[in-house]
């Protein structure tokens, strides 16, 4: 177990700016996540203040990472599988490698998931057996057959969780892209694995009835969980009872200090809602970094009041 003052989930512009300000505030900072998963990574930016040339998102992120490291932030290129809060007020974060980190404060800056399979039946059967969140909807499929689609940590950890609920779990993936530890857990489990395959269609009328793979194989199932990439921001946030925007239930609700309803948990960037602009993410990250480091300092010294 490794202890930090502030842990930031997400290495996009919001998370990087938060890391810079938290680390400059003398906090021990860890940044989790993979840079290439940021929506900025493949983009180009030409509308950012004081920048008179077009820069690639990758270049911006690499410079931000170097800058945060210069101030002492540590980067751990792993996805998060679980979040908890202990009785002592510290948060524990379980990584896909099995490592556990602790921190006095968290900054959620993971962006929002825009990943879809885009296959026939996916949209029509959403909420009728198709789900994007194992943690949210898994219990609806107790003792039933389910399918999980995805190559990365969200799909693998979701499939493992469903083993405790469903009668049968099928994992559809082209090639696993996870840590050795997580891959071992999947490969040694009773999950029905379908390597090198993709979902071609989801079939059903009133609900999901079967999944058709790209090789023509059909799997009769009641539920399909589409878990592409890392665990979703909202999926992790709900583990800590972080409140969502009541109108859309798609974004985390934060005040002007980027505080959520949970003490010690802050949010910044796309996860807080539109507009999807780097300038907004950076500004919110700045505030979140300063506030989170201040909160951690107060908790360490026993001065938890404002």
UniProtKB/TrEMBL annotation:
<dbReference type="GO" id="GO:0004791">
    <property type="term" value="F:thioredoxin-disulfide reductase (NADPH) activity"/>
</dbReference>
<dbReference type="InterPro" id="IPR023753">
    <property type="entry name" value="FAD/NAD-binding_dom"/>
</dbReference>
<keyword id="KW-0285">Flavoprotein</keyword>
<feature type="domain" description="FAD/NAD(P)-binding">
    <location>
        <begin position="4"/>
        <end position="285"/>
    </location>
</feature>
<dbReference type="InterPro" id="IPR036188">
    <property type="entry name" value="FAD/NAD-bd_sf"/>
</dbReference>
<dbReference type="InterPro" id="IPR050097">
    <property type="entry name" value="Ferredoxin-NADP_redctase_2"/>
</dbReference>
<keyword id="KW-0560">Oxidoreductase</keyword>
<protein>
    <submittedName>
        <fullName>Thioredoxin-disulfide reductase</fullName>
        <ecNumber>1.8.1.9</ecNumber>
    </submittedName>
</protein>
<dbReference type="Pfam" id="PF07992">
    <property type="entry name" value="Pyr_redox_2"/>
</dbReference>
């Amino acid at each position: 177990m490794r202890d930090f003052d502030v842990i930031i989930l997400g290495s996009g512009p919001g998370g990087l700016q938060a890391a810079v300000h938290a680390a400059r505030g003398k906090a021990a900072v860890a940044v989790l996540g993979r840079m290439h998963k940021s929506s900025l990574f493949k983009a180009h930016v030409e509308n950012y203040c004081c920048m008179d040339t077009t820069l690639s998102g990758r270049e911006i992120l690499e410079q931000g990472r170097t800058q945060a490291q210069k101030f002492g932030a540590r980067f751990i290129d792993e996805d998060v599988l679980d979040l908890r809060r202990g009785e002592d007020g510290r948060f524990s974060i379980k990584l896909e490698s099995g490592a556990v980190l602790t921190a006095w404060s968290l900054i959620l800056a993971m962006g929002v998931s825009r990943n879809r399979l885009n296959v026939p039946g996916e949209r029509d059967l959403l909420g009728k057996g198709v789900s994007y969140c194992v943690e949210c909807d898994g219990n609806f499929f107790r003792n039933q057959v389910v399918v999980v689609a995805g190559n990365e940590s969200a799909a693998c950890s979701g499939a493992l969780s469903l083993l405790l609920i469903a009668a049968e779990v099928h994992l559809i993936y082209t090639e696993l892209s996870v840590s050795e530890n997580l891959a071992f857990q999947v490969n040694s489990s009773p999950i029905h694995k379908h390597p090198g395959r993709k979902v071609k269609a989801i079939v059903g009328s009133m609900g999901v009835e079967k999944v058709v793979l790209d090789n023509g194989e059909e799997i009769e199932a009641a539920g399909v969980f589409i878990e592409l990439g890392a665990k979703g921001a909202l999926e992790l946030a709900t583990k800590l009872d972080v409140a969502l925007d009541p109108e859309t239930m798609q974004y985390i609700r934060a005040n002007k200090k980027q505080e959520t309803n949970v003490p010690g948990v802050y949010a910044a960037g796309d996860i807080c809602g539109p507009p999807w602009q780097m300038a907004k993410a950076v500004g919110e990250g700045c505030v979140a970094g300063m506030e989170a480091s201040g909160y951690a300092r107060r908790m360490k010294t026993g001065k938890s009041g404002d």
